[in-house]
Structures are given as structure tokens and as C-alpha cells.
């Protein structure tokens, strides 16, 4: 509170004498007093009342400082009560300093100015700070930019703070030393950054290492980030592989953000770029030696030289191992031969192949097992479209449903097979490019269609009944393993009364006429009825006329008689 607003000792005495009733007006105010004596740890202060007041000497000095008052000094004190039970005035130097300090601090807080203070005590969660009469709380997190292990050197010295929060009603003030340091560092950083340019080469000291890079100090309080990808042209899995804290390193300034003053640094940029001219150095189709540096779910990276890595996709690792993790084929640190499949210098990518440096087992199989040869293998898998049969070098060949049996449907024939069963199959086709081998099981046996020779539509054949069903009969054509055919009920006889399947028995020999034959679709249709009608027509044409009135029995009888006579 300013001196012009504080009543003097004489003025206060006059006002007090004028009206004792007005004492409430003067209590809780700050007035001027004079030190009239010092006794032990107390100062005697005359403020113009009937009696003098006593103030502890410690209230006349800052925390940690020596008392420097003497008799005759004029001081500001706070009138708590004009008279207590002992008839003494209750006054306080601390309260006076606090009132004055709050008025000053509120204005500084409003103007966002810094305030001077002294850290004088440690409390739970932080420290207490004397701000020239008012006590503030300094949280532990606001002491410094980095954690402080020993706050001793920071105590009992005057230093600047920023007020974060004030509440006079509760008497709470929260301050920060860290904010001041950050502002100073930001100003200093901006000054230093203004003198830096992108492309500059500087020496720095590694101050901190993280999983993604290292912070390098270029000047006191000014550091830049050296990202792990900018440390070396070669793969760096962790910055600690290259750097240690307190190492002095030479770096190049890659980028400066003018808004945030953040600095990006690089080390590899000080070395020649190994990717320049890489397409000429590693032409497509060329074979090279390298080392596996990293394995992922989709492949493995192989280092061809320092800073040059290529990817071997999992599909290019093995001719025969499919849908297996890359780690089951190669291991980190393993040296391998690879072939360059594709180079994109602009994107800094090289596609490599591992299997291309090995003999192609699909081509070897085609040479060893030409089409038409018979192989033996184990049923590895059964699917809805066929069987997979294991053959040489962990390869599989596929037997399609249609190649399981000459006469039965694939859905029926596949029921005869199970995993682990050893089967014989004929090689039908080999495609090394698509890595496919087509096999056939039914082709191992003779094709029943071959047994019918030059049979054609209209020919008569002798058949053996193999099954009797409601809709007709199943027969096998010929006597030497010919194909099966089905004669429908309506084709069993020209006479409707004789179109009964049950009149036939398995093993019966019958003659029928071929009414349809398509070797490609393996369609063979027979008819007893067609044969009978053809014989009738032939007999009519040879021995009589349909208009002559002779019965069919007469005609057939004449034909039979003629045959016997002949």
C-alpha cells in the first residue's frame, strides 16, 4: 500500500483521540510506525496508540536473510487490533508486507510480468516461495525444464518466477520457474536458429537417445533431432547401435521450421548417396551376394552393400514352400545369393528373388517325368475339386475330379480316397511358369472307350447286363472291358408290354443298336427297340411289302425259311 494512503503516527493518534468509537475504521489497516526499542527477538513499535506494539524481529527480514532494522527506523505495520486483553496493540509487519505484496503481485499477474522471489522451504509436492511478503507455492514439476534431483543450489537466492494462478480470498498463489526458463530458452533458441541455415554442417553433442532418434545439442540450450533413418544409409534398427550419449558428431542441418524453430539433422547426408546409379550397378536379371538384415511377415530385406537393401518378397523365396513365414526359410544375418527382379531408383526400391538362383524343380520334374509317364505319390489333401498328390521335392500335383474315374462321377469317385493313401497317377500336363502339375488317376487304366474300336452310330453291339433299375438297365458294351451304357426303359423293346426292366437279369447277353456316340463327351446311347425296328424294316424291304396284307410274322417266317434254305 502506498505511503500517501497510510496515516502517520501523529495523524492516527489525533484520530484515535477524537473518537475511540472509530477504532474499527483503523483496525485491519496498514499505518506508519517507529521502532523505539529492540528487546531480545522483538521490536517495539510506536504507532501513536496508548501502548506500543511488539513485532517479532524475523518479520523484518526476508527468509534466510539477517535482520537489519535499528531503533528510530520508520516501518509499515498492520493494525490487527488496537487493544487486546492485556491492553496492548496487536500489530504485524508480515501482514503489512503481505497486503502490499498482494497489491503489487495482482498488477504484475494482470500484466503477465515476471516476479522476483526466493525459494525458502520444501513442502509436500514442491516448495514455498517468498514473493516479497506473500508466500507462493512452487510445484515440483515447475522448478525446472528437466527433473531436478538436488534443489539446494536454487534455494535462498532471488530469482524470477511466473505467476500461474492467484486467489486472494483463499490466499493461494502458484508460481513457475520452469516457464521463465522455457521463455528464456525459446528466445535464446530463436536467436541461435536465426544464425543457422539449411545445409550447414555443424558439430554437436548427443544429449539424449530415444527409439526413434537422438537429440544433438548444437549450442547451449539448442538441439536438433537426428532421426534414426538419417543416421546412416544402411539399416539402423536402434540409434544406440550408432551413437552414445555425450558423443561428439558432425551433422548436417536438413530442415529448420521457422514457426517452431525445430531443427532436423542428418548424418548420412554427409556421405555419398549409394543409390545414385544403382540401376546400372544392379541390372535386372543379375545375380548378387547379400546378407539378410531384417525379416517381416511379407518377406526379407537383403543388404547388397552399405546403404543398399532390396526386398525378397515371400512369393520369391521358394519354388515349393508356399504360405509359410519367411523366417522358416531364411534367418537374420544369413548370407544368400539373390537375383535382381526390378529396380526403381527414384523410389529407392529393389525387388529381389531368392528362388531364381536355385534350380527350378518344376522344370526338373518336366524333364524327369514327361507327359504320359506314371508317378506314385501320397494323397496330401482332399478338396471339393480334386486331390493333391505329393511328388518330388515337396511339390504337389493335382488330380481333378474329372480325372479320377472313367465311368463314375468325380463326387462319387473321390469318396474312395483318404489322406496318406498311396496312388498311381499319369502326368497330364506340367506348367513350370505357373508351377502346376496336372495328374490323372483314371488315365493309368485303359479307357473303356478304346475297346469299342471303330464303332459308329447304327452299329449293333452285344452287351452284358450289369445292373437292373426301374428306369432301365445298365450294360457293358462288348466282351473286352468296353464302356458302360444305359438303355432306357422305353428303348428295351418295340413292344410296350416288353419294356419291363425286370425281365432282364444281371449277366444276360443282349444285342442293341448304337443310336448316339460322341467319343469326346464319352456319350454312348443304345437301344434294343431301335435294333428291332431296324430288323423289321429290313425284313419288310426284303421279303414283302407293308401293303401286301402279309403279317409281320409271315414276313419274318419267310425270311427265316429263306435263311435256312440258303
TrEMBL record:
<dbReference type="GO" id="GO:0006412">
    <property type="term" value="P:translation"/>
</dbReference>
<keyword id="KW-0689">Ribosomal protein</keyword>
<keyword id="KW-0694">RNA-binding</keyword>
<dbReference type="InterPro" id="IPR035104">
    <property type="entry name" value="Ribosomal_protein_S1-like"/>
</dbReference>
<comment type="similarity">
    <text>Belongs to the bacterial ribosomal protein bS1 family.</text>
</comment>
<dbReference type="GO" id="GO:0003735">
    <property type="term" value="F:structural constituent of ribosome"/>
</dbReference>
<feature type="domain" description="S1 motif">
    <location>
        <begin position="285"/>
        <end position="355"/>
    </location>
</feature>
<dbReference type="InterPro" id="IPR012340">
    <property type="entry name" value="NA-bd_OB-fold"/>
</dbReference>
<feature type="domain" description="S1 motif">
    <location>
        <begin position="453"/>
        <end position="529"/>
    </location>
</feature>
<dbReference type="InterPro" id="IPR000110">
    <property type="entry name" value="Ribosomal_bS1"/>
</dbReference>
<dbReference type="GO" id="GO:0003729">
    <property type="term" value="F:mRNA binding"/>
</dbReference>
<dbReference type="InterPro" id="IPR003029">
    <property type="entry name" value="S1_domain"/>
</dbReference>
<feature type="domain" description="S1 motif">
    <location>
        <begin position="112"/>
        <end position="178"/>
    </location>
</feature>
<feature type="domain" description="S1 motif">
    <location>
        <begin position="28"/>
        <end position="94"/>
    </location>
</feature>
<feature type="domain" description="S1 motif">
    <location>
        <begin position="372"/>
        <end position="442"/>
    </location>
</feature>
<keyword id="KW-0687">Ribonucleoprotein</keyword>
<feature type="domain" description="S1 motif">
    <location>
        <begin position="199"/>
        <end position="268"/>
    </location>
</feature>
<keyword id="KW-0677">Repeat</keyword>
<dbReference type="Pfam" id="PF00575">
    <property type="entry name" value="S1"/>
</dbReference>
<dbReference type="GO" id="GO:0022627">
    <property type="term" value="C:cytosolic small ribosomal subunit"/>
</dbReference>
<dbReference type="InterPro" id="IPR050437">
    <property type="entry name" value="Ribos_protein_bS1-like"/>
</dbReference>
<protein>
    <recommendedName>
        <fullName>30S ribosomal protein S1</fullName>
    </recommendedName>
</protein>
<comment type="function">
    <text>Binds mRNA; thus facilitating recognition of the initiation point. It is needed to translate mRNA with a short Shine-Dalgarno (SD) purine-rich sequence.</text>
</comment>
